[in-house]
């Protein structure tokens, strides 16, 4: 596909973008902005986006991404509870930004690997059964990294941003190919915000040392 064809596909995609997708994109970006600021509004705003994307992903045969957004919704409630929890005596937030230990790194790599294998083979079956448009390896990678990133974000782990960076890089071409052009643009913005989030959280940890 030439540069002019990609540009034309982009313009056509924007014209065909639904109101629901626009809402999902802007609330998704807003959610990541709040997470970068370590603001609890990341979760209520994010829930709006994830619920819409469950519908959009199923409609576009992105079943791995649909499962991710269902998982996002559940983890948003879990993260909301963790981030809001306060010490009963000091009345301070219990959860703080921290780096993963070696043991936690092994756990998250295993977590990613298990989900990748399960999602890949599930999508491969769906592709052969009734969804030829599915892209198992790419969808499984984007989904498994997102599962891992969301789990770590709920625990305010620095490494969550690394997983988000991987998710965004995989999702940009994935959604573009599927025709969700505005969503692919969203992932470009989220990729930039993920890098900014890593930098900002890193500065916060240094300030606490």
Structure explained in plain terms:
With 209 residues, the protein is an all-alpha fold. It has one domain (16-84, 97-208). The chain contains eight helices and no strands. The longest helix has 28 residues, at 102-129. The radius of gyration is 18 Å and the shape is globular. The model has no long low-confidence stretch (mean pLDDT 86).
Summarize the structure.
This protein is mainly alpha-helical. The protein has helices spanning 3-16, 19-36, 42-59, 63-84, 102-129, 136-154, 160-178, 181-208.
Globally, the shape reads: globular
Please tell me the overall pLDDT. 86
- Proportion of residues in β-strands: under 5%
Taking the alpha carbons of the first and last residues, their distance comes to 50 Å
Query: What does the main sheet amount to?
Result: none
CA gyration radius, whole angstroms:
18 Å
Residue runs with pLDDT of under 50 for 5 or more positions:
none
Q: Count the helices. How many?
A: 8
Question: What percentage of residues falls in helices of 4 or more residues?
Answer: over 70%
Write the layout of secondary structure elements.
Blueprint: H1 3-16, H2 19-36, H3 42-59, H4 63-84, H5 102-129, H6 136-154, H7 160-178, H8 181-208
């Amino acid at each position: 596909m030439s540069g002019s064809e990609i540009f034309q596909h982009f313009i056509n995609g924007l014209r065909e973008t639904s109101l629901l997708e626009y809402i999902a994109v802007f609330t998704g970006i807003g959610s990541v902005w709040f997470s970068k600021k370590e603001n609890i509004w990341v979760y209520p705003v994010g829930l709006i986006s994830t619920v819409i994307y469950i519908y959009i992903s199923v409609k576009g045969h992105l079943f791995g991404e649909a499962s991710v957004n269902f998982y996002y919704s559940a983890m948003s409630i879990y993260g909301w509870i963790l981030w809001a929890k306060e010490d009963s005596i000091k009345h301070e937030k219990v959860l703080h930004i921290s780096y993963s230990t070696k043991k936690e790194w092994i756990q998250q790599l295993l977590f990613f690997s298990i989900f990748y294998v399960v999602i890949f083979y599930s999508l491969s079956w769906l592709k052969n059964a009734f969804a030829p448009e599915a892209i198992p390896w790419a969808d499984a990678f984007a989904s498994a990294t997102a599962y891992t990133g969301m789990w770590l974000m709920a625990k305010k782990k620095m490494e969550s941003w690394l997983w988000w960076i991987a998710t965004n890089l995989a999702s940009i071409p994935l959604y573009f190919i599927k025709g969700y052009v505005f969503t692919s643009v969203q992932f470009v913005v989220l990729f930039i915000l993920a890098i900014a989030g890593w930098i900002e959280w890193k500065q916060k940890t240094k300030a606490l040392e």
